[in-house]
Amino acid sequence: MLSSRAASTATRVACNRAPVGADGKCLGARCRRPSGAAQRINAFEPTLEVSIREFEARIRAQAQDLPGAAAVLVIKGNVRPLMLFGFQSMTDIRPITQETVFQLASLSKSFAATAIALAVNDGHLQWGAPLVKHLPELNWSDARRAKKLRLFHLAYQSSGLMPHAYTNLVEDVVSYNNILNRFHEVPFVCDPGACYSYQNVVFSLLGDVLMQATGMPYAQFVEQRLFAPLAMQTASVGRAPSRIDHWASAHVLREDRWVVVPRNQRYYKVAPAAGVNASIADMRQWLLAHLDLIVGFPRAPIAQLQSRYIANEPADSHYPKDDRISKVGYGLGWRVFAFSGLDGFTHHGGYVRGMRSEMIFHRASKSGLVFLTNSEPAALNRLSLAFAEWLSGPQNAETLAWGDGIKQAPSSAPFGDL
Predict the structure, then answer these.
(1) What is the rounded distance in angstroms from the CA atom of residue 151 to the CA atom of residue 352?
(2) CATH code, residues 14-106+234-324+338-400
(3) 63 in Cβ contact with 414 (< 8 Å)
(4) What DSSP assignment string belongs to 30-50?
(5) Could you tell me where in the chain the CATH 3.40.710.10 domains are found?
(6) Which residues of 339-375 are buried (b: 16+ CB within 10 A; e: fewer)?
(7) 206-260 per-position pLDDT tens digit
(8) pLDDT tens digits, residue range 168-221?
C-alpha cells in the first residue's frame, strides 16, 4: 500500500471574481485579501470544520492505494489546500505536483459546451440552429430526422442516434474524417430531443461547428477563450507539446500491482468529447469559474450549461441504485441530478485506459470537488456521490445555508425563443 502524500499549495486568499494564478494567488486589480476571519480556511464554525476534515479524510482514503492522485475541494467559496498523493509514474517515482498533467477524457465535454456557449454569447452561433446549416456535407441515415437536429441536441446528448455511435472506431485506427463518412450507416433510435443518447463522435461535431462559425480551430478557441482568461497554465487540447516531466503516466492494475502503460491517445481525434489535458491547478480554476467565484467568461452562459434538458435513468449516468438520487439528466456538457432532495448538483467523470477524472459541484452553495488520478479505480464516481451526500447532510445544511438551489430550465423549451 502506498502511503498518502498530501501537500498544501493553495494560498489562503479570497478573490473578488478575479483569476487565480498557478500558485493559488489572485491575479489582477480585482483581488482582495480576506477582510476578516470568516474568509480564512480555519474560520468555519468548529463543528463544520471537523466535518470538512472528515470528508477530506475520505478523499485521502480514496487516493491511498492509487499510484497517484490530486484533488481540490471548495466549500462555500473557500478553497481548501490542494491534496497531492503519490507519483506521476511508478517506474521513476516522480511525485505528483500541482502542475502534473492528466488526461481528462469525457470531462472534456464541459469545455466544449462552454466554448459553444461563448460563441453563442458572441453572436457567432445559435443553440437552435439546424446542424445541417453548419455541416451540410454530412450524410445521415434518415434525412427527415437529420433536418430536426439542432446544435443543443449534440450538447445535451439527445441526437436520437444509436448510443455511442462509432465509439468503437475511435478505439480503432480510423481517422475522424473517415468515421464521419460512415454516419449514413448509423440509425436513429428516436427523433432528436426525444431520448437520451450518449455520444462521443457525434458530440465532437461541436468542434466542427465552432470552426465553421468562428474560423478558429477548436483547440485554438479553447486555449484563447478558456485556458488563457482562467490562467489554466498547463492545460492543453490534444497531443499538444508539454514538458515530459509534467505528464502523469497511465497505470493499470495487473496481478495486484499498478503497471505503467502507454497513454491512450486515440480519443484526441474527438477532442471536444475527450481531448483536454489539465493539472489540478488548472482544474481548480475550472471549478472556481463554474462556481462563479472568479472572472473568465460571462456569467449567464455558464448558468445555462448547468440546467437539466433531457432526463435519463441513474444507470445511464453510471450512478448506483439509490433512492436519494433523483432528477437525473444531462445539461450542456454536464450531468445533473438532485441528492436527498437538494437540486442543482452538476457532475461529469472521464475515463481512458489508465486515467480517471471526476468533477462535481453545487453552484448555489459555492462548493465543489475535483479528483484526478493516473489510474483506473473502480466506481470512482462514488466519491462524487459521497460529496453530494456530505453537502446535503443535515449536519451541514444549516451552516452552509445554500438557499433554494439552481433553478432548472424546462426541458420542453430549454432555450426560449429560437
Answers:
(1) 26
(2) 3.40.710.10
(3) no
(4) TEE--SSGGGSGGGS-HHHHH
(5) 14-106+234-324+338-400
(6) bbebbbbbbbbbbbbbbbbbbbbbbbbbbbbbbbbbb
(7) 999 999 999 999 999 999 999 999 999 999 999 866 567 799 999 999 998 999 9
(8) 999 998 999 999 999 999 999 999 999 999 999 999 999 999 999 999 999 999
